[in-house]
Amino acid sequence: MARAGDGRDWPTLESAGGILSLIATGAASSRAGLLRQSGLSRVTVTQRLNALLTAGLVRETEETLPSGGRPTRMLAVNAAAGFMLVANIGETHIHLAAMDLTPAVIAQTTLPFVVASGPEATLARMAEAFQSLIEAALPTHRFFLGISLSLPTPVDFKRGRVVGPSVLRDWDDVDIIGRLRERFAVPVYVENDVNLMTLCEYRRNFPDTEDMLFVKIGTGIGSGMISGGRIFRGAQGAAGDIGHIQFLSDDAPLCRCGKFGCVEARAAGWAIARDLARRGFSAGTARDVIGLVEQREPEAIMLLRAAGRTIGEVVSDVVSIINPSLIVVGGTLARGGDFLLSGIRELVYQRCLPLATRDLSIVLSAAEEDSALFGAAYLLLENLFAPAEVDRLLHRFLLSRPVLAALPG
Ligand SMILES: [Zn+2]
Q1: How far, in Å, CA of 380 to CA of 149, rounded?
Q2: What mean pLDDT comes out for the span 312-340?
Q3: What percent of the chain has pLDDT over 70?
Q4: 163 plus 108 within the same structural domain
Q5: Is 261 among the domain residues?
Q6: pLDDT of residue 4
Q7: How far is the centre of ligand 1, averaged over its atoms, from the C-alpha of 259 (Å)?
Q8: Which domain holds residue 117?
């Protein structure tokens, strides 16, 4: 067999993208699976797989299945073959990390975040922090795969740009991808936090559920959808933005988006806090609301229940349109448990057709602080190893190994 470094693997490795993609996406996890899925001959599959194994991109392990019997040789992407940089911009902090291909954290750091600093200064500080993370990861994980960012705001995914109005004032239409690519020359992805939390929930907790809805109820309200195992974004990335669906009534409250009667203005953390403050409680955020609910303050519980029913109204419309088999409710207000969930369940079961609710589960998300950050990592892996992109990835991998790349094909 050809060994890495003598050059004979290079052309084989460069044509091994399809095999790598099948392994990375979980479509095949054994040699037999590769033969079946690729439609290639046994000789070709073996050659290409050997090139990937020799390059250290794929590893083979012996595993005994729970059912017992002979150990089976399983194929997986080698988690230590490279690293990626991810960051989640939150309300007050930016969490940045270098992760391997598991994804698991290799090194991490946080920066304070002030919206008023603006995008240029913030991106420059993030780039400095990324540089330190590269220095931490590079000695053990030689190949730098790419960058993925989570932003707390609507993002036009195809263009990687913020589309306001949003909490990130002054970020409208800033070329975030361009700025980072200029400095790091790797693929860069930018996505909103709710879609990434949805992706993390799917990949980490419900990998077998191909059609699910994730609803984040915190200071604001948003949702993400997985359809056929992929994030459903719509044309501009605005799909799932349920917080500003309006229902009008005589007393429709003013929303922070400037319209009247939005779901957010009736049921988000900031709206419940507003109503509690009017009743004399000291409340300004979703956390304050949950604090009062946990102290069993009857008025806070009553308002959270009412919010659950309001959200249930809009969620039932979404269920009728996309027919998920699972709804996961997360965000700060989800800590209110059944006080929130019962209203959502009540409305969904009342309003949707039996076919849509027969096998529908509605559950609370396990609170995971880092789900947007890990979602960013899953997003990057999904895109880099996608069939259409994987050849580009292999090409960059070869360039990162000067001994192989210098030899003629
Ligand atoms: Zn609104």
Answers
A1: 9
A2: 95
A3: 95
A4: yes
A5: yes
A6: 44
A7: 5
A8: 80-196+371-386
Are 337 and 216 in a shared domain? yes
Find how far residue 326's CA is from the centre of its chain.
17
Q: Which residues surround ligand 1, an ion (CB under 5 A)?
A: 244, 255, 257, 259, 262
Q: Distance from the CA of 277 to the center of ligand 1, in angstroms?
A: 20
Residue 341 in any domain: the answer is yes
Inform me whether the pLDDT recorded for 12 exceeds 80: no
Query: Which one is predicted more confidently, 117 or 409?
Result: 117
Chain-centroid distance, C-alpha 239: 15
**Residue 266 CA, ligand 1 centroid: distance in Å:** 10
Token pair, residue 113, equals: 């975040």
Beta bridge partners of 107: 98
Question: Does 177 fall in a domain?
Answer: yes
CA–CA distance, 372 with 153 (Å, rounded to integer): 12
Is 263 found in the same domain as 181? no
pLDDT in tens, 84-106: 999 999 988 999 999 999 999 99
**Final residue of a structural domain among 24, 49, 77:** 77
Helix axes of 298-322 and 286-294: crossing angle, nearest 10 degrees: 120
CATH code, 35: 1.10.10.10
Which pLDDT band, with edges at 50, 70 and 90, does 407 fall under? very low
Distance 248 CA to ligand 1 centre (A): 12
Question: For the whole model, what pTM was predicted?
Answer: 0.91
Residue with tokens 């509690």: 276
Structurally, the chain folds into a number of domains equal to: 3
Domain of 339, CATH number, reads 3.30.420.40
Return d(Cα 11, Cα 126) in angstroms, integer.
37
Cα 230 to ligand 1 centroid, rounded to whole Å: 27
